Amino acid sequence: MSKSYHLVLGGSQGLGAELVQQLLKKGQPVISVARSSDGTSAGSGFIAIACDLSRQSDREDLIAQLQKLPGEIDTVYFCAAQMAYGDYAETSLEEGSRLLNLNVLGVHHLMQAALSSLKVKRVYLISSEAAFFPLASMSLYSASKAFLHQFGLSLYWNALARGVLVQTYVAPPMKTQFDQKYASKMKRRFHRFEPSTVASHLLSARDNHSPEIFFQSKAGWIRKLMSLFPRKLLVKIFSQV
Ligand SMILES: NC(=O)c1ccc[n+]([C@@H]2O[C@H](COP(=O)([O-])OP(=O)(O)OC[C@H]3O[C@@H](n4cnc5c(N)ncnc54)[C@H](OP(=O)(O)O)[C@@H]3O)[C@@H](O)[C@H]2O)c1
After folding, report:
1. Distance CA 236, CA 158 (A)
2. Which of 144, 19, 169 is nearest to 8 (CA)?
3. What global pTM score does this model have?
4. Helix (H) and strand (E) counts for the chain?
5. CA 1 to centroid of ligand 1, rounded, Å
6. Residue 81 has pLDDT above 90, yes or no
7. Residue 214's CB: how many other CB atoms inside 10 A?
8. Among 49-53, 62-66, 218-222, which stretch is predicted with the lowest mean pLDDT?
9. Domains of the chain in sequence order
């Protein structure tokens, strides 16, 4: 019998790894993609693929492998992302380009494949609250998440017409390696959630078919409230962060 896979991009750590574990516990076949994947597959329900999603040639190889799958892809989870923290002017061109190649071009490339050559039913784009705030210390990362967020919302009806449900999931701050790397540099004043809690929230939202899903409904309200603020004031407040 042909399988229906869950494809987790960035499934070796953090939120992606939690999604992989929870899906496997539910008995769902999973394909996990990350640079550090060892390429081994444990049993018939789990496939690990090593791929640097910031590289076009790697993404092309991945798409070719996925096209040969004996089955369809139920859901794609776009978790893989890179962060750059610090003074933008001091971010090397190389690091910035890697970030954009993964967080922007990688999303564009794989989304085109998901909507055309791959048999995908549903896509979750993992956005961040950073998509709404012009954070000076994470300008490239925030901008890349704003791109992903608007991209998902803009695509919603177009993708639906092709039979694919594209949803943008706004994850809260989480206790992952992603966060660990920058926690010491950022004066954090907000609560950070366990990635397991966020993964189970995302997986329990299967019946929610809306374009945008917030982990915390508070984040949606903050966003609405922010739209009432003069833009200049917002930039002034958040460009200090
Ligand atoms: N952590 C937070 O506070 C937070 C808050 C809101 C939203 N988010 C979003 O949630 C998502 C997951 O974040 P996280 O904190 O779980 O991240 P994480 O712990 O850093 O894990 C990132 C995953 O992506 C993979 N990855 C990174 N670069 C890759 C590349 N070039 N090619 C292939 N895979 C790559 C990593 O594996 P390899 O290193 O092995 O490649 C890893 O599996 C991201 O989209 C992030 O923007 C995070």
Report:
1. 36
2. 19
3. 0.93
4. 9, 7
5. 33
6. yes
7. 21
8. 218-222
9. 3-238 (3.40.50.720)
